[in-house]
Amino acid sequence: MYTVGQRYLSQLDPQLGLGIVVETQARRVTVAFPAVDEERTYATANAPLSRLLFRIGDKVRLADNQVYAVIKVTETAGVAVYTVSTTEGHEIEVSEVALAAELELNQPQQRLLTGQIDSATLFETRYKAVQHLHQLDQTEVRGLLAPRTLLLPHQVYLAQQVGTRHAPRVMLADEVGLGKTIEAGMIIHQQLHTHRAKRVLVLTPEPLMAQWLVELRRKFNLRFDLLNQERMDTDDNPFEEAQWVISCLDLVAKQERLSEQMVSEVWDLVVIDEAHQLEHADPVLKQCVNLLCARARGLLLLTATPEQLGQEAHFERLHLLDPQRFASFSDYQTSEAQYQRIDQAIQSIEAGTGADLPFPVHGSSTDAQVRYLLDFYGTGRCLYRNTRASVAGLPARALHPHPLESAPNGTAADDLMQQLYPERYETDDNWVQAHPKVTWLVQFLKANKAEKVLVICGNASVATALEDYLHMRAGIRSAAFYEGLSLVERDRAAAYFQESEHGAQVLVCSEIGSEGRNFQFSQHLVLFDLPLSPDLLEQRIGRLDRIGQKQTIHIHVPFVLKSAQERLFKWYAQGLEVFTEHCAGAQRLYDQYAEELRDYCLEQNNSTDFIERVAAATSQLKASLDAGRNRLLERHSLDSTKATQYIEQIKAWDDSTTLREWLELASNALDLDIDPLDRDTWIFKANEHTHEALIPFFQDDAITGTFSREIAASREDWEFLTWEHPLVTETLELFETDTLGSGALSRLRLPNLPEGTLLLEAVAVVRVLGQSRMDLKRFLPRTPIRLLIDAQGRNLADALPPEKLHPRLENLPAKAAGNAIKQLREPLLELISKTEQHAQTLAQTFINKAQEAFTDHIDAEIERTTLLSLAQADEHRNNELATLKQERDTGYAALAQSQVSIHALRLIATHH
Ligand SMILES: Nc1ncnc2c1ncn2[C@@H]1O[C@H](COP(=O)(O)OP(=O)(O)OP(=O)(O)O)[C@@H](O)[C@H]1O
C-alpha cells in the first residue's frame, strides 16, 4: 500500500536519490525525486521501488542536513515518524517526509533491503580485499614492501626499527656510501604508509636537492615538492600548503620571512642531510634549526662523519635530537667513557660468566640483559652507525701513489696551506701549463681512455682552471662540477659524466662534488690534492666506494716528491692507513695530532718517528674502538638475525602469487584491462567503464609494472608492483570506502533443507578508529569476521566455509532479486539483527586480545624505561615514562572503542 509522504528508492536507479510518494491512484503511484527534480509514475503491481525505513540506532539525515540518531520508530497514517535525539540531548519527532532527498545508502543492510544488489563475484572480491588488508595491517615489515631497493640487512633492520616508532628522533650515521639516503627514504615511506606522519620536510645541501627528489620519486614512488630558489622567490609562503617538501637550509636562511614560515609549520618528520655541516652555519641559521628541530615531531639527522668537526659538535647534533637526554657535554663524555666496561659486561653475559659486573643488570634472559645494556649505553636508541666492515659486498680499494719531480717553488716555507695547495694562491690560470700533476693527469687520462675518472680538488678555481685545460688544450672530454654552477648545470655535468658512450671521460670537482653524490659507475678517483680532514677524505673516496660499486676502485694520489704534499700523503697512507681501509677513529687522531702534523709537513720538528708513532696510535685506537664504543654501536645498529627475518618476510610478500590473483580479481571488479607482457610484467589500461577512483593513475595512458624486485631495480621507468604500490592499495581501499559488492543475493541447491530456507552470509569487520599516529592497527588489524546465519540464529560459517559454499551458489537476475527482497523483508530484518548480535560477540574477543597485546607491549616499554630511569637517576626518563603511561591509557581506550560493522551481506535462498 503506497501512501503519500512515504519514502522510496528506485531499485533500478538509485542515483535518483530518495523519492517521496506524491500521488496514488488505483493502479499507479507517482513518486517525486527532489534530488534530481524528477517525477516518475509506476504501475503499483510491479514498481521497482523499495521503501526506506530506518531502525533504532540508524542515523538519519534531514532536509536541513542535520544528522540524528533514531531512538524510536512509530507510524501515523502509514507514514513513519522517527524520534531522534539532538546533539543537545533533546528528543524530537520527525516525519519521514522531512528526510533529505540526497540520501547515500552506504550500509550493506540498507542497500540489501532496498534491493541494491551486486554480483556474487563482487561480493567475494570485497571479502578478499578485507582479508588482504587484515594480513597487511599486521605485518612487521609494513611500509618496507614498496621501496625499489635491494634488501640489504643493515638498511632493512635499521629502517624497521626506526620506521615503526612513533615520531622517531634518530641520527643515521652509517659510514660513507652505505645508503643513508635510502634508509631515510625507507623510514619516510613507512611513516607515511602507516599514517604516522603526514607532512615531511627534507633539508639537503642545495647541490643534493635534485638527487633526493629523483631518489624519492624513483625508489619510493613519493613525489616531493622541490622548493628551490625560484619557488622561494615566487611563492608568498612556499611551505604553507606543501605536504612533502625538499628544501635547502642555506636558501631558507637567506630570508627571514622564509625561515619563519618554515619553522611555523607543523612537521611530522624533518630530515636533515649532511647534518655535520650545521656546524659551519651562522648563528641565525643555527637558531632556525634549533627551533625547527624542537618543534618537529620526528627528526632524522644524516651524516657519514658525525665527528668530522669534533666531539662537541657531535654532541650538539645529539642535543638537537633529544635536548633533555643530551643536556650536558661533560655528562655525555662521562657516559662515553663507560663503553668499554659495558662491552665487557655484554661479553661476559653472553659467555655465561656474568659475575663481577660493574653495575646491576636487569632482564630475565641473556637477550633481555644484553638489550638492557645496549639501551643503557649513552646514545642507545637514537644513534645508528653501520660500518663498512659489517656490510658485505663492498668493493676493494687499491692505492696508486704517483710521486712527481718538481722544481722547488718559492712559496712561503712556513705556510702549510701554501705548501699543500700552491695552485689556490695563483692569481691567474697559467699555472696549469707546466704543472707536474697536470702533466701526469693528462698522460694518465690518455693512457686510460676507456675509464671514467673522477678528479677532486679542494677548490673551485683550481677545478675550473684544470678542467678548462683538459678540455681546451688537451682535448679530453671533460666536465667541471663546482659551486659556481647552477643546479641545472651541475646535474647536466654529472649526467654528461655518467653517459656511457659519448659522455665525458673525466669530471673535475671541487669539494662540493665530494658529498652525497653517486658516482659508483666510475672506478678511478684522482685526488688532485689531499684535504687535511680525514673525514673529508673519506667523503671523497665514498663517491666511488659505495653500495652498487661492483669493482675494485683505484685511488690515485699525485704529489710532489720531498714536499709537504708527500709528507701529508705519508701521514694518510702509513700513519692512518685510510686509503685502502676505512679508519673509524681517523678524525680523532687528526684532532689530537693536528699541531704535530703541521710541523711534520713543514719539516719544522726533528721527529723522525712521527709516522711510526701515528701508526701505533692508529692501531691502538682501532683496537680500543673495536672493543668498546664501535662494537656497541655496531651491535645496536644491526641485529643480523632480525634483519634476516624481516628480509624473509619481505621476500615472502614479493614471491607470493596472491598479489597477481588479487590484481586479476580487482581488475575484473573495477573494469581495468590487464595485458601480461610475461609472467612478471603486466600492462594495465583503463577503459570507459573503469572505476573513477582509478582514473588518476592513468594520466599517461597505460601503466607497465613488474612484480620482480630485480627487474624493477634495472627498469626504473616501470612501476614496481607490490602490495604497497598506490594502484594496489587503491584497489584494496576502494572496497573500504565504496559500497562495491556490499550486498548480494544468491540461490543454493540444497535438497535436504526445506525449499526457500534463508541463510544470511555476512562479512563484519572490526576496526580501531582514531589515534592513527599510534598505529594501533598493529595490535588490532582490520579483522574480517565471516558469518552464515540461519533463521534459528545459528552460525554455520564453519560448517560451510567459502571454498565449499561459494562455488555452489547461483546468481539471480537483478529484477527477480529486487522482487524477492521485497517479499523477504521481514525475515531478512530478523536475520540481519541476529547477524549483528553474533558479530558483536565475536568482535569482542578480537578487541580483548588486541588490548592484551597492546598492554603487554607498552608495559614492557614502561618497565624498560623504569629500569633505565632507576639506573641513571635521569629526570628525562621520567618524562618519557609519563608519556608512555599516557599512551597506554589513550591506546587502551581507543581499542575499547573499536567498532564492528557489517561490511557485506549476501542473502542465500535454498531450493531443491
Ligand atoms: N638498498 C639499495 N638498493 C639499491 N641501491 C642502493 C641501496 N642502498 C644504497 N643504494 C645506492 O647506493 C648509493 C649510496 O647510497 P646513499 O646515497 O643513500 O648513501 P649515503 O650513505 O647517503 O652516502 P653519503 O654518505 O655519501 O651521503 C646510492 O647510489 C644509492 O642509490
Condensed summary:
This protein is an alpha/beta fold and 912 residues long. Helix content is 41%, strand content 18%.
Which characteristics define this entry?
912 residues, alpha/beta, SH3 type barrels, Rossmann fold, seven-stranded parallel sheet, six-stranded parallel sheet, 30 helices, elongated, binds adenosine-5'-triphosphate, nucleotide-binding, helicase, ATP-binding
Characterization of this structure:
Helix content is about 40%, strand content about 20%. The protein is of the alpha/beta class. The protein has 5 domains: about 5-105, SH3 type barrels; about 155-340 and about 375-385, Tandem AAA-ATPase domain (Rossmann fold), CATH 3.40.50; about 395-605, Rossmann fold (3-Layer(aba) Sandwich), CATH 3.40.50.300; about 655-725, Dihydrodipicolinate Reductase, domain 2 (2-Layer Sandwich), CATH 3.30.360.80; about 745-910, no CATH class. The strands form 6 sheets. A 7-stranded parallel β-sheet has the order 12-13-11-14-15-10-16, sandwiched between helices. The two termini are about 30 Å apart. The model has no long low-confidence stretch (mean pLDDT about 85). The site of adenosine-5'-triphosphate (ATP) has 19 residues, from helix 4. It holds the Pfam family Tudor_1_RapA.
